[in-house]
Write a structure and sequence with these properties.
Number of strands: 8
CATH superfamily: Mannose-Binding Protein A, subunit A
Helix content: 10-25%
CATH architecture: Roll
Order of helices and strands: HHEEHEHEEEEE
Biased composition (Acidic residues): 31-43
Radius of gyration: 15 Å
Number of helices: 4
CATH topology: Mannose-Binding Protein A, Chain A
Shape: globular
InterPro entries: C-type_lectin-like, C-type_lectin-like/link_sf, C-type_lectin/snaclec_domain, C-type_lectin_CS, CTDL_fold
Protein name: C-type lectin domain-containing protein
Distance between the termini: 29 Å
Keywords: Disulfide bond, Signal
Number of domains: 1
Domain C-type lectin: 63-177
Length: 179
């Protein structure tokens, strides 16, 4: 776990100085813009639905003072966080059920990484942007640390569309957030 944290911190430091796209990845999204700026007044579920692109494309939305982007390219949790930092944000932080619902729709019901992890200390859950933990939506029986190595959080797990702790090295699409 300490090695994972060290690698994550090193990756964040590198991402803040330089960033090289991996493969055919689009650093700025389909229309060559950063996380798309949208009307802050439009935070409804319909906003997330309308902003989504075709399968395999980025989906963007705004809620409150934050902009979000769902990136369908599967990455492990640390690489997803580095990608979000390179875009000027972090993996998404969820402080209430309305934001949770918004992000689930933004990800079109697909499983995706968010910025909650206990990779540094088991059962000490921390947000990737250092915000305090005030809300969770884990499924019944989660987080369970199955196999002793589930330290990262995904949304839209199971038919209940709740949160699950998962192995950080597994690859998932992810949601970035930028204030």
């Amino acid at each position: 776990m300490k090695l994972l944290l060290l690698c994550l911190l090193f990756g964040v430091a590198v991402a803040q100085t330089t960033y090289e796209p991996i493969g055919d990845e689009q650093v700025n999204g389909p229309d060559d813009t950063d996380i798309a700026a949208t009307d802050e007044a439009e935070t409804s579920p319909e906003r997330a639905k309308r902003s989504c692109c075709n399968p395999g494309s980025w989906c963007t939305g705004t809620r409150g003072s934050s902009q979000y982007v769902y990136i369908p390219t599967a990455r492990n949790w640390a690489h997803a966080q580095v990608h979000c930092v390179a875009l000027g944000g972090s993996l998404a932080v969820v402080h209430d059920s309305a934001t949770d619902e918004f992000l689930k729709r933004l990800a079109q019901g697909r499983r995706a990484w968010i910025g909650l992890s206990d990779a540094q200390y088991n059962n000490v859950w921390l947000w990737s942007n250092s915000d305090p933990l005030r809300f969770t939506k884990f499924c019944r029986g989660e987080p369970n640390n199955k196999g002793g190595n589930e330290g990262c959080t995904e949304i839209n797990f199971s038919s209940a569309k709740c949160w699950n702790d998962e192995k950080c090295e597994n690859r998932r699409p992810f949601i970035c957030q930028k204030k």
